[in-house]
Every structure is written in C-alpha cells, then in structure tokens.
From TrEMBL, chain A:
<dbReference type="InterPro" id="IPR005876">
    <property type="entry name" value="Co_trans_ATP-bd"/>
</dbReference>
<protein>
    <recommendedName>
        <fullName>ABC transporter ATP-binding protein</fullName>
    </recommendedName>
</protein>
<dbReference type="InterPro" id="IPR027417">
    <property type="entry name" value="P-loop_NTPase"/>
</dbReference>
<dbReference type="InterPro" id="IPR003439">
    <property type="entry name" value="ABC_transporter-like_ATP-bd"/>
</dbReference>
<keyword id="KW-0067">ATP-binding</keyword>
<feature type="domain" description="ABC transporter">
    <location>
        <begin position="5"/>
        <end position="235"/>
    </location>
</feature>
<dbReference type="InterPro" id="IPR015856">
    <property type="entry name" value="ABC_transpr_CbiO/EcfA_su"/>
</dbReference>
<dbReference type="GO" id="GO:0005524">
    <property type="term" value="F:ATP binding"/>
</dbReference>
<comment type="similarity">
    <text>Belongs to the ABC transporter superfamily.</text>
</comment>
Automatic annotation (TrEMBL), chain B:
<feature type="transmembrane region" description="Helical">
    <location>
        <begin position="109"/>
        <end position="130"/>
    </location>
</feature>
<feature type="transmembrane region" description="Helical">
    <location>
        <begin position="72"/>
        <end position="89"/>
    </location>
</feature>
<protein>
    <submittedName>
        <fullName>Cobalt ECF transporter T component CbiQ</fullName>
    </submittedName>
</protein>
<dbReference type="InterPro" id="IPR051611">
    <property type="entry name" value="ECF_transporter_component"/>
</dbReference>
<dbReference type="InterPro" id="IPR012809">
    <property type="entry name" value="ECF_CbiQ"/>
</dbReference>
<keyword id="KW-0812">Transmembrane</keyword>
<keyword id="KW-1003">Cell membrane</keyword>
<keyword id="KW-1133">Transmembrane helix</keyword>
<feature type="transmembrane region" description="Helical">
    <location>
        <begin position="233"/>
        <end position="251"/>
    </location>
</feature>
Amino acid sequence: MTASLEVSGLAFAYPDGHQALFGVDFSLARGERVALLGPNGAGKTTLVLHLNGILTAGAGTVTVAGLPVDKRNMAEVRRRVGIVFQDPDDQLFMPTVREDVAFGPAAAGLKGPELEERVQRALERVGMAEFKDRPPHHLSFGQRRRVAVATVLAMEPEILVLDEPSSNLDPASRRELADILRSLDVTVLMVTHDLPYALELCPRSLILSEGVIAADGPTGELLSDEELMRAHRLELPFGFDPRSVPAAPARP
Amino acid sequence: MGAGHAHKLYRHGHSPVHGLPPHTKLAAVFAFVVVVVSTPREAMWAFGLYAVLLGVVAYVARVPAAFLLRRLLIEVPFVAFAVLMPFVAEGERVEVLGLSLSVNGLWGAWNVLAKGTLGVAASVLLAATTELRELLLGLQRLRLPPLLVQIASFMIRYGDVITDEMRRMRIARESRGFEARGVRHWGVLAKSAGALFIRSYERGERVHLAMLSRGYAGSMPVIDEVTASRAQWSYALALPGAALAVCLLGWTL
Amino acid sequence: MHVPDGFINAPTSAATGVIAAGAVAVSLRGARRELDERTAPLAGLVAAFIFAVQMLNFPVAAGTSGHLLGGALAAILVGPYTGVLCVSVVLLMQGILFADGGLTALGVNITNMGIVTVVVAYALFRGLVKVLPRTRRSVTAASFVAALVSVPAAALAFTLMYAVGGTTDVSIGKVATAMVGVHVLIGIGEAVITALTVGAVIAVRPDLVHGARGLEQKLKLRVNGELVDAPGAEPAPVAARTSRRTLWITGLVTSLVLAGFVSFYASADPDGLEKVASDHGIDKQAEEHAVADSPLADYGVKDVDDARLSGGLAGVIGVGVTVVAGTGVFWAVRRRRTADASPTAVEGSSAEQPARENV
C-alpha cells in the first residue's frame, strides 16, 4: 500500500535568502492521524505550503498518494490535499456559506445536483447544514472554523491538513471540532501548539525544530520526555500530566 | 465595497431591473451609450427623450431621483470644463447678457454636457441595480477574457483590504501624535504608500493561497448558472431599442 | 485625464478603440509569461492601487481632469503586459461603476493612460536599468525617472488625439500647454509615489518586483549538513529577450498607427490649412473680447479645427466598427485561450453556448 504522504529531503529558502527547511523526511500511512509539533518559527507553515505545491521545494520531493507534487499533477494534488488555514477569514471569501463550500468542487468541474449534494454532505459532517445561506462573517469564530473544514471536506481529500485548528476556540467549540475530526476517515496532519489537543486526537507526533524533523513517535511518549520537550521549546500547560491521559486510540 | 459583494453605489432592492441578469444589463447600457453618442448634437429634443427614457428606468428600478442626482456629482470636473468652453473656443461669436461667447464653444459645451451626463446617468443606474460580483459574472458571460475578470475581481477584493489597512495605519500614526496638515506632511504620507502596499499584499496573498488550495486556477467557478431568457433580453434591450428609434429620428428630422 | 462620452469624435474613438483592443489582446498573450500563481493577486493589488490614486482628481483648465496615472508603477511591478491589463481593467471598472470616463471613450482612455504610460515608462526603465549598476537603488532611481516622464507623455498623447478628433473648438496650443504643464507637476508626484512604493517592495519582497528580476543571487541550500545548489527560480534571460522584442514591435505598431492618425487627419480635412489662416484673423478679433481675460489666451498660437467628421453617418459606422472589431479581437483571443485551456474551461464555455444561441 502506498503512503498517503511522503516527504523526503525537503529543503526550502525564501527569495530573500532566509532558509526555513533543512531536509525534512517523514511519511504518513493512509488513515493515520498525526500531529506536527514545533515552536514558533520552526518552519511548520512553510512545510504545510509545500504539501500542495504552493511553495516549490528547493531540494527534495513531496509525494501524495504516489503522485509527485509538480506542475503536471498540481490540480490533482490540490484536490487530494485539503488545507485548513489558521485564520478562517482567509479561507472564507464568498458571500454565503453554501457558495464558499461549493467553490472547490465547482472549480473541479462539478455542477448541478451533484454539486449541491456534495455541499450538503460536507456541511452535515461538520454540523453546519442549517447555516447554508448565511454570510460567513455573520457566524461565530468556532462556526467559521467548522465551515472552513467543510470547504475542504467538500473536495473529498485524501489528506486533511489543519494549521492550528484549536487556536482562538472556546472550550466548547474546541471539543466540538475534536469530535468532528475524530469522526472523519481521512488521513489527518494537524499542525499545532496545543499539546493536550494533539495527545487527545493523534496517536503519533512529529516534532519539527529548526527546519528538520527532530523526533517521531507515539504522542504520549514524546510529551513525557521532558528533556526532548525542553530542547525544542515545547511546554505543557501548567499541571497537565500526559501520563494521566489514555493515549488516543489508533484507527482500526 | 463592503465584503466584496456589495458596494456603496449599490442600492439594495427587488425591482424588475435588479432582477435582470447582469450581462443583459451591461449590454443594454453599452448599446444605449453608443446610441446617445452617435446622435447629432443639433437634435436637442432627442437628448430630452433619452433623459425621459432613463427616468422611466429609474422609476421601474425604484431608484429615487435624489440618489441619482447625488451620484451625478462625479461629473463636476467636466461641467467646469464645459462652462469654460464657450469663453475659450474660437469661431463665430454671439453676445449673451453682455458676454461674448463662441457659438462653436456653446455647441461643444452642450455636446459634452448632454452626452456625458446621459452616459454617467446610465452607468449610475447600472451600478445602483447590480452587485459587484454580479457585474463580474456579467462581464465573464459577455466573454471578457478571464484574465481581465480575474484582475478585476482581485482589484475589488483589495479595495477592501487597502481601505482597512489604511485605516489601521492612520490610527497608528495618529495615536503617536501625527496629523496630516499641509504640504510639509506629504512626505510621511507618501512613505506610508510603500508600507501600505506590502501590508495589503501580504494580507491578500493569504486569501489567494487559500483559493489556490481549493483548486482555483484563474477563473471563478460557476456555482449558479445565470442564463437570460428571451423575455429578459428583450426587456433589457428595450432601453437601447427605444433610444435607437429616437436617434434615427434625430438623423432624419 | 478621463475623457467623457462625446468629447472625442466617433472615428477617432473607434480607431483608438481598435488600438486599445489590439494592445489588450497582445498583452493577454504576453501576460501569460509574466504572471504565475504568486503574481496574479499582485496584478489585482496594483489595479486597486491605481484605482485609488486615479480617484484623486485635480481639474485641469482646458483638458478634462488630471490625476496620478499609475502606469509606470504597474509596468515595473508586474511587467508591461500585465501593466496594460491592470490599467485597462481599472478604466473599465471606473467607467461602469463610477461613470468616470465614458464607455465609448474607453479606447481613448486606455490608449492614453494605459498603453502610452506603460510603454514609455517600461522602455525608459529597462534602458536605465541596463545602464546603471545592478543594484536595488538603481531600480528605484530608474522607477523615479520612468514615472516622471510617463505622465507628460500621456498628456501629449491626449493632446494629439484631441488635435485629431476633438469635438470642441479649443485651440490645440491651449490644450497642449495646459495639459502638459499640469502633468509635468503631476509627474513629479507620480515619480515620488512610484519610487517609494517600488523601493519599499524591493526591500522586503524583491521576488515581487518584475523589473528587478535578474538581481537575485543563486541560493545555496543546506540539506542535512551539505550545501546544495537550489534550482534557478526561472529562465529569466529567455523570457526577457522575447518580451523585449514583442515590446518593441508593439511600440512600433503603436507609433505607426498614431502617425497614421495625423496623416488621416491632414487628408480628411484638406481645408484645414486655409482655415488656420482665417482663424488667425478671428483669433485677433477674439482677443479684444472676453478671451483677452483668459489666462490661456496668450498661448493660442496655432489653431486646429476639429475634423468635422463628428456629424454624419460616419459616426454611427465608426462606433459600430469599434464594437465589432473589439468584440472580434476578444472573441479570437477567447477561442484561442479556450482551445489550449483546461478541459473544465472548455466545458464551461460549451455550456454557455446553447444559452447564447437561445437569444
């Protein structure tokens, strides 16, 4: 079975000469839920932008379900890799929720009842079906983030990549989003600072630090390794003990 | 241009004119202006009839006269020019109230004023009854090349971003005690332009990346097909049709 | 400088419409080389910027109105082809939304404010960048000069069009003096804004400045401790050569057509010269009257009458030709584009087909 995502030797520098990635290697199996942890400025967002070819690797390769990410496969790669950006306001730009969710599939050529059904299904999966005809900027922040997830789900991606999904959410919205993510049967790569959230949702974690993968293993083990955590400026919330939480169940 | 789908010139409503497909309205306005411009300037009564036609459209669209007149103020620089024309133009002269005016200049002023005003009024009516996004869709339907439509839609999106960033930078400037007064401060304002440009770009870039990630490849996907029925076309084209009849009369009489 | 409906006569409007449509068609082809995913929104931003600066109008006595033009900024930031497209989009939207500039005068406006400014500014800019040392400071300096010259150039082009097809009887000397005079001043403002903006962008995001391509150094990447050469960003020299050649051809064609205009005018109005003589008499007489008070009166040296073609069926035919020619060019470009575009685009346009045939 081919891996959902394979990244090898990925290096990248911005045009001003600042190098952000120094040879990143990892691979995700189909259906896995993995957290990508790392301090600010570790290159997490830069890495995410490589996964669907928005940034082009300076060296190394990215492969999505066997397809190398390059100019030729770009449309297909972008359909298979769904990225939910950190700020839902960047992601939602159409006048109504329905049109926003329809944007991706319509760009892929879907229309009529087929398109309508795709939109309906995506909105139901995030519990936002009754907000279909509302303008996105009238929704609460948590609702907007759920709509942002729906816009990506509507494209039926192979991999869902979420950039800081729990940021700025109140505890109830945070839990609702976790329930939604758990109910999905796609490969998930979750970029986050929220370590308890990673532990709750992802059996496996990667630590990206100074442009390379510094650690790769079961989330509980990584979070319990105090020396590793300190070395990469990762801190658990006060009073939180990763050993007291049962590890997230791996999917069958 | 709030939120990219409504703009200051737009007047929300549900009139028959609002409901027409945007491309029929665009075609009608273009045709109307072409007809108006081709009318001989000597046929003064024809311009009166055109104004009546626009008045009928405004009535059907339920656009109040005050709104329309306020929007016509955009014309002021041209009016100033037109008023000057009889004084500076050459040719045969007539005495009016003790002033010597050029006959040619008077005709020229009338020509620019009448045709310009009718053109502006038609555009104002179009903008008042059509949302920005619809206008773009209309242009796309009228086969404007997709690249141009794309630049136009980014432009409208950035209109919002720029005004927003401008407001923030002004607040930041003023909270540090700066106030633009007179020529001496133009330097500071000019320097802000560069910073404004970068800030606006980086905000808009994130939206664009999100669009690319969802398979955007240069043209807005069509989510709701807008098709115009024969009745809608004939309804929209009634305006330039009537104007054409007036114009032909103007040539023959 | 926005020309309203009815200000320039129909044949001239039609001819400039053809020029503008041709230039836009050429630019559409050229822009595909200049624009990639990252610069497409930049083109929109440049357009929005131009839109904003053009909204600040100063009334000009014998022209229409004066304002910053933005053509130089567009050419330098996004390249000449995309620059022409940006300005054209701005003028189209201004015409439709704000009724600023007549819809039938769109050709005149695009030719003046889009094509002339962009071609003049970009030619000057490239020339200067070639001569000056290869630094970022030179790029900024070249932008300043290019913007400074582009604005009076557009004013001159306007005057020329006015001479060919103005519908009013204001002497060409007055128009030229007033237009060029005011626009030299505006040019200074334009130069400052352009240089500052280009300078600011080049300092932070040099990758975004089209005119600064080729200044970038080759990147070295450190991969797992070893240094590796990054692949070149793009084959810049090849693109530059072709774009320069096409630019020259476009410039040549534009000047040929403009020259053709002048001769058209001269031949279409054979009694123009006789007219000048008699007008001089009228001019003297006029000076004793109200015109003597006008600050512009001193400048009325040479009088050129309008081509007197504004009346007659020629008007209707001329405008009709513009519309047909313009549509034809766009249509041809569309066809060509859809032919080599992605299958979804083809699907889209074929879906539109029956709807149009219904009509």
